Amino acid sequence: MAAAREALFIIDPLEQLSPAADTSLVMMHEGLRRGHQVYVATLSDLGIETGGPFAHAQQVVTALEGWVQKEGEPMRRPLADFDVVFMRKDPPFDDDYLSATWILEAARGQCMLVNDPAGLRELNEKLAILAFPELIPATRLLRRRVDLDRALADFGGKMIVKPVFGFGGREILQAREGDPNLGSIYELATRESTRWTVAQAFIESAHEGDKRILLVDGEPIGAVMRVPARGELRNNFHAGGHPEATELDERDHEICARVGPHLRERGQFFAGLDVIGGLLTEINVTSPTGMQEINALGGLTGEDTMQARFWTGVERRLGAT
Questions:
Q1: Domain count, the chain
Q2: Domain extent for 186
Q3: 264 is catalytic
């Protein structure tokens, strides 16, 4: 049994989390099951002063299986008091999120940070894949109509455009040659050429769904297929996609072997890779999800669950510090 630790989860308000689907909840529940003390805070609870960063943190306890509840009053505590701080605030990656990473930066060396704030800032989830050109579909960052038209022609007349800081399937559009709405799609995607959009070659097997692969400390621990609803372009669970069981194939292991060390070196302890048709489309580091779906589809219990494998990795890392 690992030594009891104090863990802080920086999350959205606890009451907004879904007991049936949220990954942070099962992470907290597993930490409690292992005898650790678990606390929660939101971005607005964070601050920094001359003595260092702090949080107004509130302890949580297990209420029901898979659910936790707050206990007592929030306590103002230095982040250095905690053994590990988990940044699990959902996107958007906005000014508040960016400021929170600077607060976390001030705790570097004082506690384990999951994920590392420098990596959260540097590894944009849509663009980090560009470090692996041999693993990804053709991808460009553009904002001018002439460049988008060129990309569409180069990509065979069909492509996806999506916002750089998009999340949950929001604002993902398909552009096709000959579509009378093409100009409007470009205008929406670039806000009339005032922002960049990610243009990515369309993958014909996208209708089969994308494979979300979870990595802990650079190693894959499980995967789930996210399958779009009939007639829907997007496969995100937030956009109506549904989960299906899947396994890692040889190509998936090749992708993980290339990307895992890259993420480990940048302190991204927990990440989610999105793979469509054997091609890496996104690297999710802010608040990857999928644990509960993988557990349910695989009938996983005890030490075989995703959250148990996650905490085993955390405890191993803490034990080495």
A1: 3
A2: 138-202
A3: no
